[in-house]
Batch of 3 targets.
Target 1
Amino acid sequence: MNQYTDRRYVFAVAIILVGLIFMIRLFQIQVIDKSYEQYALSNAQSVRVIYPARGLIYDRNGKIMVYNKAAYDIMVTPRLVEPFDTTELCEILKISRESVRERLESARSYSSRVPSVFMKQVSYENAALLQEKMFQFPGLYVQTRTLREYTSPIASHALGYVGEVDQAILDSEPYYQLGDYIGVSGVEKAYEEYLKGQKGKNIFLKDVHNQTIESYQNGRLDVTVEVGKNLTSTLDMALQEYGEKLMSPYVGSVVALEPSTGEVLALVSAPTYSPDLLVGRSLGVEFGKLATDTLNPLFNRALMAQYPPGSTFKTIMALIGLQEKVISKRTEHHCYYGFYVGNIHTRCHLHETPLNLIEAIQNSCNTYFINVLKSTLQDVKFSNTAEAYNNWRNHLLSMGLTQPLGIELTNELDGNIPTPDYYNRIYGENHWNYLTIRSLAIGQGELLVTPLQMANMTATIANRGYYITPHLVREIEGEESIDESLQERHYTTIDTSCYGPIVDGMDLVVNGGKGSTARNARIKGITVCGKTGTAENPHGNDHSIFIAFAPKENPKIAIAVYVENQGFGTTYAAPIASLMIEKYLSGEVKRGWYENWVMQLIQPVAPARKKDSLVADTLQNNESDDGTEE
Amino acid sequence: MVQRNSVFANLDWVSILLWMVMIGFGWMNIYSANIMEADGGVFDLSQRFGKQLIWIGASLLLAMLMLVLDAKFYFYFSYLLYLVMLGVLLGVLVFGKEIHGAKSWFVIGGFQLQPSEFAKLITALALANLLTSHNYNIRKFWHLVKAFAIIAAPPMLILLQPDLGSALVYSAFILVLFREGFSTNIMMMLATLGLLFFTTLLLDKALILLFMVIISLIIYMVVARSFKKGVVNGLLVAIVFGVLYGTDYLLKTEFSPFLMGLAALIPVALVITVKGFWLREYVQMKILTGLFISIVFIISVDFAMKNVLKPHQQHRIYVTLGIEDDPQGVGYNVNQSKIAIGSGGFSGKGYLKGTQTKLHFVPEQSTDFIFCTVGEEWGFLGTTFVILLYVGFFLRMIFLAERQRSSFSRIFGYGFISVMLLHFIVNIGMTIGLLPVIGIPLPFFSYGGSSLWTFTMFLFIFLRLDASRLEYIR
């Protein structure tokens, strides 16, 4: 009966073959191919990110400047979205059906698995309402984030703003995820590392419906959220606010420093804007408006505007002259309405003559300082003008005038002090002398510095020979001190003894009798030392400049005021500096009338001449040779 | 009483041990796949593992019952049971409950019974009866038709439910016929048809036609031992095709290349047929017949794919064949299943520590996809163990079947082996992405009473017959 018994072997072999095929396949997907483990992890793990509150920023007196408010983003994971009651969602969020469809569509085009923002920063009420009814809208959830809030609308340029990370940052820094916020400018950017804190992470197991089941490995892999570190700024809120108020009619900048520490007390760039504008949802629109404003409020003039220092530079000329011993404080020069050599002449205003060094500073005599330049560049120690000039320039280098000072903000620009090579190139080697570049003596010509550098220069004089890199943050929560480089004293190449006569001259500028150029900067009971400046400006009216520090002994504040296109330094910049010093040193301004007077002085800005670059214009200005100085 | 004792004395305890290991390990994995939502302990009857314990208990009773019945009972009642079963399958179409779009369940007091499961067992009995009937010769055409009728009747009714997976299982009985002497030529033809089936889905029909014509010509050249005749016939086809294609191109009627090829074949086939009758050369006619059957088959497969199969079934076949790729849609099951198994690695995540199966990423994780739990929690070691377990069990069954004195017992044994083998291949094949997703359970492993009871009864009837292997049953 039992035929075909051999066919049993076909069965046996086939069964063994099937077993082998299965085992080979299983070996392949279980042992060789490791990618399935990754898939499994991303399948079953749900990472819930907890966003830390950003560090707060206080002013130097402990008053809060920047804090956080909660914002609610509606997020969507398109893969999990099921048909829901669109009308209800529209009602809660107050958007149209069209908009819901578009938002879903755009989220889907980004990724169906990764959550993306469905709607940004909805109000607390709407978020709460939605949260309550969340079960009706599978795939949506509310993500809490924090936004910046400001106690008063000041110091935008110093503090900077916070915005969403862009693609470049996403690519380079793995910490940041799409939709995260990051400091874009100012202190927010410079101290991002401290302010941002550390995002927390809770890892859950989730099932196929994206419902979380339990904490993954009892939370061993979770990351605790760390709140951002608080910062104490060097800014004095009251002074900053006052400075912005005084500058509000003008275009320009005020920088106030504490000379002994290099701390920035106020950093005003006018016109300014309210930091509230660049927060959250309104950022995009408002940034666009500010960027296209003709007065360019986004431009941080305090750090980036390169201005000729004008007559304030005469203090430096004097210092270098004394250091090189080409003049003494008793050196006298005659001046009759200007400096004349052949057909070259630089005008000067009416004052007594002859003047010694201190009187020359007091009177701001152009002739005197062109002579100082002459003595410095014709110094017999050096074989030629270029060498003497280079030595002169090295002194400026030590005062921080040629390079960015190194404030924490990344957008600081340097000044411009031409190198000897520059003149060699233009005039030919040995074909230039003090006469060619005499504008430098009165802070004009190619000479350009930023308001911050000017303030730092003032602080150096106040300190009689050293400066500390200006900085905006004095304390970081949890850190023992700020960066060492921001505490170190930078000594200049000028001896301390040389500063005495200059300080005395600056004292007389404000507190002297006849011929003093800034008597309107006087403050009762405080010895203010200052120097006026008026910079020739091809773009329109002259710039009004004033540098000052006070009190004379043991100075507490050094200030540089730069008002664009308004005319004499005495008229505009000096009262502003004076008022700010009073505000800072005595806490309040008793001269309310003076304050009002300063703010109503504004003249219409003269129409700009068609010139592109300030440097080119000042060059031409140098040739035209009619530098008018007080 | 003497006889009963002898049953237990002659029982094959090796098989029973393997059976217990399969059921036990299967239950452990069902427990693991469902433990996340459970809070009432192992005997929580609201949970699948609790219910499965009941099914296991019941299957023990069933096993005992199968053993106490007389061996001859299975033979004598097989046709009657078969008729009753056909009645039940008809009944389920009328009185059954529709679950997941198929009317395959009887609901009796909260329990669901799937008659199509038990039908396999009874079909095996009836087939064994037929094949051992007096003067039965499998090589005779009408005898073979009877066998196919017995095999085909239940799946026809099951397809009406419709339950493609369960119906497909009946194709396993062809293996039984093969063991009993079914012509290898026909088996080869069936294999060829299988190959044609897949190539029809994968390739362009015109291309397949071209291949078939070329192969026919080669066969003709080999059989007729004449290179010339083959080339002449080939050229003839080519010329006719060329003429047809040329006129079509000129008239711009745009018939499909497949239809053009068919049209080209007709005059050539006529010439060959007439010539064949005239010269009494029948070789060419046989080859032509084969070609003709193949063409009809291709056309019907193509038609069935596009018109008979439901879109989701078409999709599954396409995805498995790699024609379509859709990891979130149809491919989702397979993809998740592969992820679960693949993430187990070499030694697995540990018992009860799997994430993919427990968190319901894998669909049907305690029924059709129970193998995923093994793969994820026990790793390659576990899956290898399970496969070796089944392979060992099958080899043991072959050994038992071959030692039968009665053809009835042997044929029934092979029926059991074939059906279970098909389940094994299709189930594991689909979880590891080698075969399309066809929802049939892994015998003794998957959750579900009907399947467990069917295979338990299958095994124990066979063991009961084996215990009486020295008797002559038929």
Note: Residues 237-288+302-624 of chain A form a domain with the Beta-lactamase fold (CATH 3.40.710.10).
Target 2
Amino acid sequence: MKFQTIIVGGGLAGLTAGLALQKKGISCAIISSGENALHFSSGTFSGDCPEETVRLFEEAGIVLKGDPAKDSWRLTPSGSMQKVRLAFEDVTLYPSEKINATNVLIANPEGFIDFPTAFIADGISQQGIPCKVKSFSLPCLKLLRESPSEMRSVGIAKKLDGCIEEVAECIKGLLDGEDLVILPQVFGLASPEPVRALRAAIPAEINFIGTMPPSVPGIRVQLQLKKAFERAGGTFLMGDTAIMAEIADGTVRFIRTKNLDSHILSADNYILASGTFFSKGLTSSMQKISEPLFGLDVECPEERTEWYSEDFFAPQPYMAAGVKTDKDLHPLRDGQPISNLYAAGSILAGKKNAGMALTSTFKVVKKIAL
Amino acid sequence: MTLQEITGSAHNFEECMKCTVCTAYCPVVPVNPRYPGPKQAGPDGERLRLKNPEFFDEALKYCLNCKRCEVVCPSGVNVADIIQEARIRYSQSKPKLRDKILASTDTMGSLARPFAPVVNGVLSLGVTKAMMDGVLAVDKHRTFPKYSSESFEGWFKRKAKAAQDAFKEKVAYFHGCYVNYNYPQLGKDFVKVMNALGIGVELLDKEKCCGVAMISNGMSKAAAKNAAINSGAISKVVEKGLRVLTTSSTCTFTMRDEYPELLHIDNAAWKNSLLLATRFIYEAVDSGRKKLIFKDSYKARIAYHTPCHLEKLGWGVFSTRLLKMIPGVEFTLLDSACCGIAGTYGFKKENYEASQAIGKALFEDIASVAPDVVACDCETCKWQIEMSTGYKVMNPVSILAEALDTELTAEANRS
């Protein structure tokens, strides 16, 4: 099967590349082995983000807040403030390291333990702003409690999205003059409408803050990007794994996957956006860190003892490991660039964040869609 | 030996790192709170069951075996295999009469076929439906697939077999119970398309139900018996150098993947020779070996639904790209979602509501696209979508048979 571009990896970098290229009329296939890091997203992007991100996402129905070139601040689930650039519409962004409120209510569905209300309340109190924590319960959550192991973000969202009016009434009943309500990100799984409806119904600002995974807005954005990619004519090979790549004379000739066994996939260009260790874009043995598909040159400290810092909270050097590339993002293999292969996203060596993933992605898109 | 090989666990269950992505995508969890969800039912529960089989929970029967948990798992855990294997190994509940009837597609088909008009009439009567609902707990909303008065095998022997000798190139066809007893037309369409491609069709010496319904109804021993017979018959033609094609994504998936994983039948000798017809045709055309010539007059707005087992196989791309080759087709790929029927699952009274709730998103998607026809490689999805939406559902092979100019195609493939 032939495509113009084959992308290995269906996360933020892979999907963004696929959607941008497909919109330019370049036929793409994305090979995605299992779901990706968007499922663990906090709903925000940090690091320099390219301008094009906002427009491309908007075309897929995804509203991004913030200025891609200027820092804003978000309130994190641990109660601290963090610099970010862009955010899904669920999250409230602040111009400085202080939330904009005089009196805060944190409301949490009763029995939901994946949302650290005490940390958030503590952080807000440290900013000198009064803050109360209340829990709420609704009849539609009753069934969910029969299965105690499933009182998780996505399960709750599937119920609450179906009864937003009741949720709004319930939260209005809890309000006692607060001008900011903090809710966990358990709304808007299939579309952002429930998030918008709650904001419209409640006479206070609402800031939806991340929960333990899976991330409800992350899954929504993943589904919106995938749908936009497929409706633009892209081919998304879900649950398949690229297992072998044929390279000859410094170019990739074809790829084999687990599901398609003998059927080879070929393209003019290839993008490696397979992420790092969790998604197996990088693998490690006792001796070395490697890139398993193309056998690319990997940048990381030589000695295993230098992969990590003994200070648990310090940045761990192995996390900066990634493939080496030339200035056009062609990865190196035995020191030589592969001319029709590009690397994008967190598989690149160095500091990793969404901004860096998107910047490298758009750089590759421009090279391919010249 | 690598560390991974030493620590390898059955169906990769030790690879689970508790991210809960499987449960987020499980179609059953939101509609049935009695189902513990794939993470709990699969790798989490497995740890407990290994300690003591008494930890087995009969609620695992609510798993549809749709495999969507496996498709989304970032860590390559075969979650549904863990669940199905646990049911086979530990479940104490015996299949009810109703389950046996639903699962024995072969036997029921052979019994019903000679009396098809009577059986179809009786099965569609309100009073029969009420009785089956009351006595057997087969939901009254369901209409049983009609039985055909002539089986596909009967038609093939009578009408098609002799003509197949004219072709040098041959394939074998595993038609499955649905084509044989309920809908021979799909088998006829398959023969028509193959012959137009210049390929003759032969049937297996002996073909039994692939066994998927038996596996899901707690009859794995009977399923293994069928599997052994099919495996023997398939091996025989594969040794001759033939490929075996099917027109059902679930039969294909069951024989390729469930035989070795759940029934422990070694199919390595023929696994890669068993193909869904759409993959075989796409590969033949894509490689330039065969040509398809379509009627100028064929026009259709087609929406494709990827059945769960085809999603797991990862072969939906062959069917969709084949349909997109037809010049008169306006194509939409529907969002991948379970239709809710899951074979015999949706026929059971206790599952009817859950089944319809699961399919709701797909039905709404179809209604919003409003196609002329829904295309799909699975027969039970077809029943569910036709009953629940009123839209006509066709197998891609039947669409090809309708859209092809068979004479011109046959001529183009003759040389």
Note: Strands of chain B lie at 169-174, 199-203, 244-246, 274-276, 300-304, 329-333, 373-375, 393-394.
Target 3
Amino acid sequence: MDAFQHRRWIIILTMLIVTLVFGVRLLYIQVLNNDWKNRAEQITHHKVTIHPARGLLYDRNGELLVAVNQVYDILVTPKDVKDIDTAQLCSLFGISKTEFLQKIEYASTGYNVSYKASTFIESMSKEEYSRVVPYLNSFNGFDSKRRTNRGYPSGIAAHVLGYVRKISAEQYSKDQKVGEKYYNQNDYVGITGLEKVYEKELRGERGSAFFLRDYAGNDKTNLEENYAISGQNLYTSIDINLQAYGERLMKNKLGSIVAIEPSTGEILSLISAPSFDPNKLSGREFSENYKELLNNDTLKPIINRPIYNANYRPGSIFKLVQALIAMQEGVIMQSTGFACNKSLINCHNHEHPLNVQIAIKHSCNPYFYQVYKRLIQRGEQSSIFKDSRLGIEKWNAAVKSFGLGVKLNTDIPGVKAGRIPDANYYDNEFPSKSNPYGKYRWAFSTIYSNSIGEGEIGVSPLQMANLAAIIANRGYYYTPHLVKKIGKDGSKRPEYLKKNYTMAAAKYFGPVINAMEMVVENGTARNAQVDSIIVCGKTGTVQNETFNDHSVFIAFAPKENPQIAIAVYVEYGTWGGIWAAKIASLMIEKYLAKELSENGKNKEKQVLDAIILDKHSDFK
Amino acid sequence: MENRTKNIIGKVDVPLLVLFLALVIAGLLTVYSASYSEESPQIYSLDKAYGKQLVWIIISLLIGVLILTLEGSFIRNSAYIVYGVVTIMLLIVLFMPAIKGAHSWFKIGGFTIQPSEFAKFATSLAIAHFLSTTGVKIQETKTKLIVFFLIAVPGFFILQQPDPGTLLVFFSFIFVMYREGLSGNILLGMFFALIIGVMAIFFKASEANVNIFSWVFEANYLYLFVIVLASVLIHFGITYLVMPRYRGKKYITNIIGASMALLLVFSCNYAYDNVFKDRHRDRFEVMFGLKLDRKGVGYNSYQALSAIGSGGSAGKGYFKGTLSNDKYKHVPEQSTDFIFCSWAEEWGFLGSFLLIILYTAFLIRIIMVAERQKSKFTRIFGYCAASILFFHYMINIAMVIGLAPVIGIPLPFFSKGGSAILGFSIMIFIFLRMDSERKDVLR
């Protein structure tokens, strides 16, 4: 026993106090407060996005139109770039010092941050990559990533397919604000063409995986995985051979070809000339190539003419529609004849237009002047102004039933309606919005140019091809479309399975079709004859104030059970019977007979040799 | 002989032995989980930390049993010899090749031996022997000086390694001295000095400014003023209200006390600016929460707290940790200084609370056993063991849970390290042996 033995209690108390403090602190950080749990999760959890493979595109016979290439992106993490031989790096990648600095700057600003990897060089091919990869390890902060890229084995149909690009800042923020909030900042999206329209089907569904990572950032344990769903393949209606052939024929020309299978509305080929190789818009040189296509080429190859150029006047081809409507409305009969009175409107010398068939065959202008007059001024009102208003409304509705002046709900972005004028148009918009004719200030005599497809009518090549399909079908059409099947066992969009009937009954089509046969046989389109196939066609010449007239031709073939309906526009190609008819017949022959006849081969040579316009042509 | 061994084992303090074994086994299991490697999954894999730890524990227990067979008097009489041998080892180790920048280890085959771990029980033996010598009075300055000398010699060598963490542990002997009669004022004074010093560094590190009547000055100047004011008030409070009979007598003491406090604050400020290196300053800033630097100096602390916090109330389960083990390695030194993280992550608050309770019970049991001794030697040695273990426990856990700056001190029985487990085991077994013969011997 000693005097200081009570001091044990002080020491024990000290120990208990320390343990109490520890206990409270542990209770706080382990139970009461969640901060450290969240921080731990930030340290250990790593979310990885699994990108599904984007769907491929095939032609109607299963040939690959859009394939996938393996490419390699070089990534840089600016924070880790240390002690590197910049000169060696620049020469390895073939860039200048300035470009190098710009790329590093780019990788550290905007939504790129310096401690995360960003793209340094995009889409290197396997060959380029294998040259670079042995040296990559010697540069701190540089890494590579394998990725897939769009590839176009045949290099055709650029306008149909569209292209894929990293999502733009605007599109991204739009998706975040009003969209479905699907995209991440580095995602690729379809920008135009089928890639855009079928974006949702093609992209698939993104998957994700949660990993536990170690201190060095290596993923060690897979906690959870949501598999990605691959994008669906698109089986398009394009015939790869016909498309390629059409593009070849349109070399050195400006214009459009649209070919449709009348019995389904499937677009066999959609050609906009001049075209370009879609591979140009896939990969590293995108920006330069795009700028070149957009700005530096006066012929504007980026425009998809068949759907975008809806201000072409249809010319004489429109007489087909006028004849059909007039017969349906009962203002003429099949056997109605008019005198070819050149004092009404100019014409050329031809046999007397005894009936509709002959009038169409010779494309008689005065005949259709008088037909149109009967359509517009029916004598239902005593005032010709009031009468014309009634007439034009009826006429407008009938024409629109042919898919003209309306937006065809096709699966190509940027479709235009064109224009079929109505009363309102002449009241308020023509000749200008600031100084229109005004109500009851116009009548047939003001608008008679419409009778022969001139005047204020505007249609697109797609609508013209559809018109050919309507006549081939004797009165109805399926909305033209480009995708036959979504996914291998899928179907097309339901709206493309519906027949759209025109206001003209099937019985009125017979004389028109016969006339079209005669046009090719011994009329204005003899150039469109194909051995062994009966082609029905109609030429058109669109007057053009600034340069040569546009050459237009529509046709379908064969006459019985038509397989193909086509519209060909050769801009500045002068008279419709020449280039447009030749090209259309070659397309028909190629599609139906596969091999060209002797005649066809000669024609082909003429067409291929013809340089209607090239880049250096001096035109406005 | 057999009879005698049986006799000794029968007299060993069972609660203390059980607590000791519980800590050792829990420690081994934690090392196993913290440094587990899929290539060598067996706990006895000798090329892995846990295999080595197991071997060291077996060696420690064998040596422990051997110690139990020794005569108590033999141990007492060998105290200075053991102290001398270990001190010489501490000298020699300074000439060994450096491992991780310190001359702390002898390398023998695949094993390393760290003599500073043995210095803990060796110094305890020497102090116990000296203070229990007849006629030695702790109140005498000579006694204090000799004790200081006994601590300072090994302490000096350890500082030369350098191993300041272990040196810090030698300050724990102040508790022993206090128990044996050292004036409580010294302990209290040290406690106040610690509080004042820590606060001084806090004000200095925070670089806070105080604005009084548009007179802007640094907060630590205000702190000085508060200290002076406080000492004056305490002085008058004590002299006039509490203990009027001391009036006048304690004037000098109080003035000295206040002056020393001021001196301490000035020294801390001076040391902070001129002695500390940036890394020290950073550690203090992180500890005071002035800085949550998760990438730089604060990294260890941040990772450790994340691991502990992620354990939640019930933990993730044994072997299910995701931060403090060899697979993920988010917590550095997860099997040595930061091993508590591994335990706390896998067993949660229930486990970590149980562990600190177990530890405290172990320490209190040592003190209780020490207090029942007739032998002053055994009692003092027991207090030495309790104080050293308490210091380790206090500083290690405080560091890991962010209450103290990061100081490299292991958690006894848990942290991987053969010399440590051997040293602590020898200490506990000597104490158990001495206790077992408490009824046979008088001193």
Note: The first strand of chain A starts at residue 45 and ends at 50.
